[in-house]
């Protein structure tokens, strides 16, 4: 993997009349790499080797922490990271075809995390996998590991918790967009001696991981949303004031 300045220098030598073989000997760059740069389709500014903020001598948070908080919620809900060839990892987040706005929001968040990496949409029955390749996805998501998330411990690193504390609504929105929904429930009440149907909105979040459930409810507590846990895998938000808060900051999928 060569950085942008190395590529520019090699191509500048080519433009001065040096042969590929000569430039390869001068710079130590393989002729195959030089040939691919000469035939490249994407602009030279596209640099998959861009610096990772987590890998620098002084690790720092992602450039857009709000977008990262949303992406973290999406990843914990419906995302996975898989090792590919040559130490490259693929981040994939499953998004249902029924929610095109969610697909676009997910793609923007992934692109914001690694602006120099391509983001693609891989179709699958009923959904699309928003996908991006980078050597650094495990740096952004240290929760990555073998097996399913609900079969292993999931805990945020201190730097991640700092971001979630600063942008809790983005984190909640990412979790709802991945493993949650806004629905209309109904029940019956006796009003004026007559039984009438009563409808009310409710948010649900469902996840098999007790750790992820805990991260979700902790974030809800942080923003003052009241919730109930009817069983081990579901969280319900039904009180009127709390639903209004969720509507203002999260809203239904679209």
Concise structural overview:
With 254 residues, the chain is α+β, with helices and mostly antiparallel strands.
Write the layout of secondary structure elements.
Elements: H1 4-15, H2 20-27, H3 31-38, H4 65-78, E1 79-83, E2 89-96, H5 100-113, E3 119-124, E4 127-134, H6 137-140, H7 158-166, H8 168-179, E5 180-191, E6 194-206, H9 210-223, E7 228-231, E8 234-237, H10 240-249
Antiparallel strand pairs: 1-2, 2-4, 3-4, 5-6, 6-8, 7-8
Unreliable residue runs: 41-47
How many alpha or pi helices?
10
| Major sheet characteristics | 4 strands, antiparallel
Output the CATH homologous superfamily of the largest domain.
Answer: Homing endonucleases
Mean pLDDT: 88
CATH architecture of the largest domain: Roll
β-sheet strand percentage: 15-25%
Q: What is the H-and-E element order? A: HHHHEEHEEHHHEEHEEH
Helix content: 40-55%
User: Which word captures the global form?
Assistant: elongated
Strand tally is: 8
How many domains in all? Answer: 3
Instruction: Please write the CATH class name of the largest domain.
Output: Alpha Beta
- The structural class is alpha+beta
Q: Walk across the major sheet and give the strand order.
A: 1-2-4-3
Report how far apart the termini are. Answer: 39 Å
Rg: 23 Å
Kindly report the CATH topology of the largest domain.
Answer: Endonuclease I-creI
């Amino acid at each position: 993997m060569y950085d942008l300045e190395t590529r520019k220098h090699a191509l500048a030598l080519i433009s001065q009349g040096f042969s590929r073989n000569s430039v390869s000997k001068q710079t130590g760059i393989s002729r195959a790499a030089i040939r691919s740069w000469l035939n490249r389709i994407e602009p030279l500014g596209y640099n998959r080797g861009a610096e990772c903020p987590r890998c620098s001598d002084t690790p720092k948070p992602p450039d857009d922490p709000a977008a990262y908080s949303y992406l973290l919620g999406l990843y914990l809900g419906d995302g996975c990271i898989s090792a590919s060839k040559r130490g490259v990892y693929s981040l994939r987040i499953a998004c249902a075809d029924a929610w095109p706005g969610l697909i676009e929001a997910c793609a923007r968040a992934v692109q914001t995390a690694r602006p120099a990496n391509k983001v693609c949409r891989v179709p699958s029955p009923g959904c699309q996998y928003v996908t991006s390749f980078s050597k650094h996805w495990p740096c952004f998501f240290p929760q990555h590991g073998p097996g399913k998330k609900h079969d292993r411990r999931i805990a945020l690193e201190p730097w991640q918790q700092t971001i979630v504390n600063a942008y809790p609504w983005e984190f909640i929105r990412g979790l709802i967009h991945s493993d949650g929904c806004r629905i209309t429930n109904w029940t019956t009440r006796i009003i004026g001696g007559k039984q009438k149907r009563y409808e009310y909105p409710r948010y649900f979040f469902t996840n098999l991981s007790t750790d992820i459930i805990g991260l979700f409810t902790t974030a809800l507590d942080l923003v003052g949303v009241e919730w109930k846990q009817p069983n081990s895998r579901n969280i319900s938000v039904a009180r009127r004031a709390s639903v209004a808060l969720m509507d203002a900051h999260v809203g239904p999928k679209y």
